[in-house]
Amino acid sequence: MELQQDPTLLWFIGIYAVIMVGIGIFMSKKVSGSEDFVLAGKSLGPFVLMGTLLATWTGSGSISGGETSMAFSYGIVPALMLMLPTLIGIIVLYIVAPKIRAFGKYTVSGILEAKYGKTSRNIASVIIILAYVGIVSYQMKGFGFILNLTTGISVEVGTMVGAALIIFLAMIGGLRSVSQTDAISGFLMVGGLLLTIPTIFVVAGGWDDIVSNVPASHMSTTGGLTTVQLLGYLLPSLFLLLGDQNMYQRLASSKNEGSSRKGQIGWLVAMLIISPAISFIAFASRSIFPDIDPGMALMATTVAMPVAVGGILLASAASFIITTGNSYLLSAATNLTYDIYRNYINRNASDKKQLWVTKSFIVVLGVMAYIIISYFPTVLSVQMYAYTVYGAGITPAVLAVFFWKRVTPMAGMFSMIAGVASTLLWEVVLSKPGSINSVVIAVPVATLVLILVTLTDRTNKQQNVKSA
């Protein structure tokens, strides 16, 4: 089937944008201070929490990379496997959520400082900002791609529109407004995908026709990837999720422990719907549009279906991209305010000043994200890079805070440095040998350093003798 763009789909994007901006402005009037801006007054109930967890996690990484690219390039089984890291991550977060709430910190850096000291907080802040700006950047580019593919608007203009929406919605009301728009987007996406699956299978001629039109390797277990290569795609999302500051902030913002647990269970159930749905739709797209860019497989189906169905799917995908972008942008700005500005520039800043500074940082980081996306050829490439920088640099150290009392400050700091250094060495200096993503190297290196330094740290041994 020939891919034909349909400018009428812009109506669906326009309606979505107007609704989101309206909600953002309305909720911004309820922001009472900097804590309310960052943690929504710790008032999130189970349904809003579920929606914001879902919408924050599932963005351009899934729509234009992740499951979409995997299903198109390697087949349905590898794409379905991408759901497993998320499910494992949600279960682990469910276990540690009470501890996260007990810390009462604005940022993951604050949690690390409580265990490893101030230097670790500074290192973590740099890592988080570096990774999160990258994540925001590919949300902007992903938005540009889907508008170009479906409506004919240039990628550059679409990216600018995405950047403007992401920056505005993050700045106008913080988590107070972001959580509400996230919740609406989450439920919209579930509905849009459930409506699309049967429609696109009819358009594609049914399962048998789809299978007959894709390469034979696309029905194999690994899709032609080696085990190590497959792990290189599976592990980044797991290690990002396990230490993701966005998720920690949302769990800390829940109304109470009951709301937190119900919200996480709802998130798990929703992912059991969304992730396979994206995989099957992109796999069907491989049969219909064999020559398109893999990252556009999901969105290409919007022009192959009736306008109403395609428009709903387009609005749903756009909503996930925008909500993920503004969530990570808000989180990165929080690091700058509470880990750097308040600690080193203005310790006595008033609450009003902190709120103004956070909003200013949102704009600055948003512009940076818009600029750096031009340096990455695909959404998937920057997704794997950003995920690994964070997953290797932060996650082993932060999980040790919850699960290993013996870990030492020195071990935490060296683990973070080793995780980032090995990622940069593998990706930049060595140019990713064997097309293996750096997570396969960087996470084991960071974990090994954490363990070895802890076991050999004399300070730790002296503390153990005293406690005995």
TrEMBL record:
- Glycosyltransferase: is it a keyword of this entry? no
Pfam families to which the protein is assigned, alphabetical: SSF (PF00474)
Cellular location(s): Membrane
Q: How does it sit in the membrane?
A: Multi-pass membrane protein
Q: Chief subcellular site?
A: membrane
Transmembrane stretches, start-end: 6-27, 39-59, 71-96, 123-140, 152-175, 187-207, 227-244, 265-284, 296-322, 356-378, 384-404, 411-429, 435-456
Supply the alphabetized keyword list.
Membrane, Transmembrane, Transmembrane helix, Transport
Give the family, as the similarity comment puts it. Belongs to the sodium:solute symporter (SSF) (TC 2.A.21) family.
From the Swiss-Prot or TrEMBL record, give the protein name. Sodium:solute symporter
Species name for this entry? Pontibacillus salicampi
Organism lineage reads as:
Bacteria, Bacillati, Bacillota, Bacilli, Bacillales
